[in-house]
């Protein structure tokens, strides 16, 4: 069963009454029900066969096959997962077709390296964008691919004091990386004639496939990814300010509000 057909069946009722009763312990659908913000993480295998139980979620996280440190079996690295572009477009289109896109945030990650990736993901419908491996490299990771062994040679993924002492990263390096990514995004938005990222979310008409004459790509059909089924009625900023799943301030907000 693919994601689209599964969503279509009684999706609206399920999204209202699904997870809220389980998380809050209260009556599902009640206006004063307090539930924890929850996101479903979709790690892509075969995107057309992805099945997800619809419930009262704050958003979806689509993780592509290009992400991660590579600290996995070689069979998983080479033969498992799929591109985030497929999962993102299918999720975005399915939510719009069922009138639910304005209720959730779509976050995507999996091999993001530059502002170009951010713009492409935004045009395909994403609201948030995750950088993992490249952010670690900015702080000194050498991709030794032994994160799970506690023997990271530069102390990024180790609790051993002698290895942690080798950690070369400083906060400024990571800050500079994201500043330059943001600067690249703003520059390309200006070239396209837009002021903010919200303006291009779901704008697949801005994307154009590259015509590359290769044996492995000559039969690829990207019409599904580039199809436009409509745009969200609200901006992603408006979605983030909704108090649909409010359970009071989270620990991060409490810690950040304390000047000490």
TrEMBL record:
Pfam families: Glu_synthase (PF01645). GO terms for molecular function: glutamate synthase activity. It comes from the Eukaryota. InterPro entries: Aldolase_TIM, Glu_synthdom, Glutamate_Synthase. Residues 61-194 form the Glutamate synthase domain. GO terms for biological process: glutamate biosynthetic process. Belongs to the glutamate synthase family. PANTHER family: BNAA03G19380D PROTEIN (PTHR43100:SF2), GLUTAMATE SYNTHASE [NADPH] SMALL CHAIN (PTHR43100). This is Glutamate synthase domain-containing protein.
């Amino acid at each position: 069963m693919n994601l689209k057909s599964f969503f279509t069946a009684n999706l609206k009722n399920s999204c209202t009454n699904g997870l809220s009763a389980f998380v809050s312990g209260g009556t599902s659908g009640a206006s004063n029900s307090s539930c924890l913000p929850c996101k479903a993480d979709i790690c892509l295998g075969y995107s057309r066969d992805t099945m997800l139980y619809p419930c009262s979620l704050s958003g979806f996280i689509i993780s592509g096959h290009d992400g991660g440190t590579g600290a996995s079996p070689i069979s998983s690295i080479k033969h498992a997962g799929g591109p985030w572009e497929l999962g993102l477009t299918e999720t975005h289109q399915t939510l719009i077709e069922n009138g639910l896109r304005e209720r959730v945030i779509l976050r995507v990650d999996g091999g993001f390296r530059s502002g170009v990736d951010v713009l492409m993901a935004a045009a395909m419908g994403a609201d948030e964008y995750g950088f993992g491996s490249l952010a670690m490299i900015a702080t000194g990771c050498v991709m030794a691919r032994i994160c799970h062994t506690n023997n990271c040679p530069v102390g990024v993924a180790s609790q051993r004091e002698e290895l942690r002492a080798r950690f070369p990263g400083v906060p400024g390096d990571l800050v500079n990386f994201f500043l330059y990514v943001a600067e690249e995004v703003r520059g390309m938005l200006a070239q396209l004639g837009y002021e903010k990222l919200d303006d291009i979310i779901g704008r697949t008409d801005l994307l154009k496939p590259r015509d590359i004459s290769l044996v492995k790509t000559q039969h690829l059909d990207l019409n599904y990814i580039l199809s436009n089924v409509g745009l969200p009625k609200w901006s992603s900023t408006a979605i983030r300010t909704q108090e649909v799943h409010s359970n009071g301030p989270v620990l991060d907000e409490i810690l950040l509000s304390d000047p000490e």
